[in-house]
């Protein structure tokens, strides 16, 4: 079995759960994964191993404090062994593996949702079709979240590679709007609001439900473009984030093709819309034809009693 490399997804100083899914993807591809962790403090690697991972390499460097494609790609390329590379299909990691692939002269396959032998399947044309490509030799592959089961944690040999002195530039600070809420790209349940919510203040009704069921709150582009209080980081869709949760609840969202592109692969889709002819209903597993003013209070109280 040949070696592969999985690049751990690190968020807010911790390894994200999607990393465990990358181990299963690498195994499904018939490889033996080595996990590489970009970090500023190698202690993140303590106890970070997974069942099936042969070893862990903490790649330490000042550049990993903030994402910068050029410095991350050169530091990781220098430290990671050769082999097929797996990373999460987040905007940052998709950018990163494309850069590493260019350095190594290997193919890139993004947004993979199925692996059978060396056949990789991923959505194309905004999710309207699926393509399967056969890969031979080394490649860089990004895998969507919530597709593969997460591998169990296990003890692994850890080594540290210090790349601090070896990068030309490092981004010192990124100023982002502070948010304590779960990010849509990491969530297993998402409740999203569209222009039909009428005002950004009404997103509080979505947040209440999100708090009950442990969901992230997303938004359509119309909501993001119309209201300054709804940040772009919440946008789901073709020009926003691609999500793959178990449950996606769309509230006051019409279901334009560009929105569907980011969420149509969700396992279950629930739509709440006052217009029975809204296109979102054609893609929903469950549809509620009602205003959100009618539906959300009922949903919130039912879910609260279920979760109590
Ligand atoms: C190049 C390009 C890229 C794009 N990328 C994205 C993207 O990434 N993500 C994205 O979302 N869009 C994207 N769009 C925009 C997309 O085409 C739609 O305009 C957008 O998704 C519409 O958002 P919406 O459904 O919230 O608003 P609308 O289309 O205005 O729909 C609002 C819905 O709310 C319902 N409604 C109204 N009041 C209520 C109520 N009280 N209760 C319940 N329902 C109610 C209405 O019946 C309607 O169906 C893109 C467009 C282009 C051209």
What layout of secondary structure does this protein have?
Elements: E1 3-7, E2 10-11, E3 14-15, H1 18-28, E4 32-39, E5 55-60, H2 69-79, E6 84-88, H3 91-104, E7 107-112, E8 114-116, E9 119-124, E10 129-134, E11 139-143, E12 157-162, E13 189-193, H4 203-213, E14 216-219, H5 221-226, E15 247-251, H6 257-263, E16 268-273, E17 286-289, H7 292-307
Parallel strand pairs: 1-4, 1-6, 4-5, 5-12, 6-11, 7-11, 13-14, 13-15, 15-16, 16-17
Antiparallel strand pairs: 2-3, 8-9, 9-10
Bound molecules: flavin-adenine dinucleotide (FAD).
Flavin-adenine dinucleotide (FAD) binds next to helix 5, helix 6, strand 16 and helix 7.
Defining traits:
308 residues; alpha/beta; Rossmann fold; 2 domains; seven-stranded parallel beta sheet; 7 helices; 17 strands; binds flavin-adenine dinucleotide
CATH topology of the largest domain: Rossmann fold
Count of discrete structural domains = 2
Low-confidence stretches: none
The ligands bound in this entry are: flavin-adenine dinucleotide
* Contiguous helical run count: 7
The residue-averaged pLDDT reads 93
Query: What is the helical fraction, as a range of percent?
Result: 10-25%
Distance between the termini: 48 Å
Main sheet: strands, sense, barrel: 7 strands, parallel
% residues in beta strands: 25-35%
SSE pattern: EEEHEEHEHEEEEEEEHEHEHEEH
Number of strand elements: 17
Integer-rounded radius of gyration: 20 Å
Shape: globular
- Class per helix and strand makeup: alpha/beta
What CATH architecture of the largest domain would you give? 3-Layer(aba) Sandwich
